[in-house]
What does this fold into?
Amino acid sequence: MIALYIVAVIAVFAVCRASIEKNTGRKLPYVNVMNFAIAGAIVLLLDHPLSLVAAAAYFVGSTLEANAIASTYAGGVRRG
Amino acid sequence: MLGEILHILTAAVIAWVLFVTVDIFFRLPERGGVSGASAIARDIEASGGALAGGNMMGNIVCSPDASAGTLLAACGVYVAGIPGGLAAALMVFIGNRICHDPGYAGTTGAVLATFVIYAFTQVGFAATDFIAGMVIAILTIQGLSHIHASRLLAQLWRLRQ
It folds into this structure.
């Protein structure tokens, strides 16, 4: 039970840090912490075997989004 | 209650050592795996951090690495024991391929973490301790001070070299 509260507090803390941070590149590690915390919270909150799949799907999806945001921030794909 | 908090803090230290060791073994600080990871590393370096540590932090953001493997393995062991952890490793492997990551740090980390976490569940720890512990461990790297975390990772990377 304490584990759930710790994870939830860390998620909120990470969101606050990401909101305060001005630099886009340095926002992403804070958002990454939030993604870890939410993936953990999904499994701790949902008492169901498929919660693992939900957490993994959320985590992989959010990582792919962070990857896309970071790549765009880096200049994106040069075409032509 | 105090016992549970101590278990979570111990689990955080174990998870930290596990994922940093696997990530450095798989050379994550060497360079950014994708352009976005390099961009994050440059921003961290520009703010006073170390480039090698920034590369590893950028790689953690851009693809499921050993830290993600450890978290999902803990979730898997909590849900279904060793088979759950190995299922998590498979999902990390698929996640790596989706994120264009050619490496195996995430999958290796997840498999190793499955057995480490299962071993600790046999001596009084709960898998939930490792879920919270891993979130604390990633907070210390990605969420407290990018400058100090990247310098520490760069020092560990120099030891590896």
